[in-house]
Amino acid sequence: MQYMLLFYGNQAELMNMPREDAMRFHGAFMAYTAALQEAGAYVSNLGLRPAADATTVRTVGGKLQVQDGPFAETREQLGGFYLIDVADLDAALAWAKRHPGAERGSVEVRPVWGS
Prior knowledge:
Layout: E1 2-9, H1 11-15, H2 19-39, E2 42-47, E3 55-60, E4 63-68, E5 77-85, H3 89-98, E6 105-111
């Protein structure tokens, strides 16, 4: 079954990490990706540009609205995702607990329709 692991963190803090911390954080993501691949659970992953680069589209009262930036102002923003293929929710949660972002934010685990 496929699960999306969605990483949320404080982008301002992440973007302003000292270089040594940023290199360690990046290395943790590389090791995590390698572990998923070695376990045969890896499907794909991508990081996202900062929320300030987002554009939000919605229809209100039958009229299309396009807004620069994210819809919601929150302390944590969606920073990226991993799509994994594992046996069940318990396995997905085990991988989420190992996600490097869990130490600096949160990881939402969500099943994918049709998988």
